[in-house]
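INFO worker-7 received task bundle
INFO bundle size: 2
INFO processing item 0
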Amino acid sequence: YKNKSGKNSRNGFKEKNIVSKYGESTIQVPRDRESTFQPQVVKKGQKDVHGIEDKILSMYAKGLSTRQISESLRDIYGIDTSHETISNITDKILPFIRDWQNRPLEPIYPFVYFDALFVSVKEGHRTAKKAVYTAIGIDLSGRKDVLGIWISETESAHFWLTVLDELKGRGVQDICIACIDGLNGLAEAIEAIYPKARIQRCIVHLIGNATKYVSAKDRKAFCSDIKAIYGAATRREAEDAFEVLREHWIEKYPLAVRIWENNLDKVLCLYDFPREIRHIIYTTNAIESYHSSLRKVINTKA
């Protein structure tokens, strides 16, 4: 204590066992030489800390690391809590996470969105890239539900088979429409596990993939021709609109046109359904929004 008045000073820590709804943990309680320090969060004689652990879990859920939580508890409440103690508290929810990941699912989902994102994960003293696979389903009552989250070293067709096989094992008997981006091996995996499912490519991603090969000065006109395809009233009009796109741009931007040509059957799937259904399945924005929320937490923790 610089420029302190009086003779009192810090005198290390003592361990204290506390009890919460997640079990027992040990914290380090600071001491002073005159024994006048009064803890404010875990008071003297108090061993039940349900309120504190809820605050710790709330901060952890918002993306704070164990170190950041420890610093926040020190700054706000004036207590020192070791990283190990915070980890012990947060680890108590792991069984609940496993129960959630393995819970039974509905037998039929009219719509399921599949996607993957890559995140940086600390492993010891290094940082590695991991693929996070996600599936969001809309059930027969119209309720949106995250069906599961899976982590793998890389994105692969084999792992997508594992994901879909797990969904089947958890009770999903059939998927009516699977909305996907152009993920490696995903369409083939869906066809293998759910052969009756209709596969709809995300229009927004297809536009982005194609326009990468189009110069800026032609992009507006190119997108206008694309819009005529997915905005058509009937399948026949959409097919005619694709022929117009092909006629206008195949010589100048063959790669861009081929992207739509190779995926045309999964775009025209739209026209097997009423306009209200088309609005739900033409894009994977439902899962993109969820990934955006995940990234906010991941970036905070990083």
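INFO item 0 finished
INFO processing item 1
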Amino acid sequence: MSASQETLVKALIAAHDGGPLVGPVDNADVPADIAAVYALQNRIIAGIGPVGGWKILAGGQGEPLCSPIPANRFFANGAVLDAKTHRHFIAEVEVAVLLGADLFGKPNQFEVEAAIASVNPVLEMVANPFVDRDATPRNLQLGDLQSNGAVVVGPALASEVRGALPTLPVSLSYDGKTVKEVSTGASWADIVVALVWLAPHAEARGFPLKAGQTIITGARIAIPLGTADLVEGKLGDWGKVSARCTY
């Protein structure tokens, strides 16, 4: 890693914790392709600490995009988040799976399903460490752990929710007011396929999927946070997840 890339990694880590915003970035330090995106993610994780889980888009077209998420960015249901210091600016409602067993090698779909302990509702808080996000190249945003700022994990849902996922009613509310509702998303099969792909990918990068990790599977709703205090995601009548934000 060059000195300028090392400086960029340190700057991105610091900016997510209230340090100076990053930008503009020299073109030479912007990831040129997906391999370089993942190399930047690896360097950022190495500078933060252990992996607590991953984010991946289940049900999308082509090869999935993914990122490891540091363990210190996972929070329990009802957590109070410092949205100002950590620069959270969008809240997303997602479906996650909690692993009950390690996934090494190249597992098949049955091995992946057996390793999943539960399905959980989550809030992902998207964070912006850049001076001008709109002018920041997409590959740099992807390299910045796909803009992850925090993940709040709600309680496990009944296992029967797996069959309801494609048409699952999902809502996001700010301070008790619903701001968006949807009723489509990735199916259980989509999620399993995504993990079949992710397991060998994660292991090849040195961060294998392990018991206790949470895998988030893509935003079903994403809305600017503003200055909302109470943020709540609801998955129909199956369950919900909430957090409070300070500014």
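INFO item 1 finished
INFO post-check item 1: The CA atoms of residues 53 and 194 lie 14 Å apart.
INFO post-check item 1: The chain has a mean pLDDT of 97.
INFO worker-7 idle
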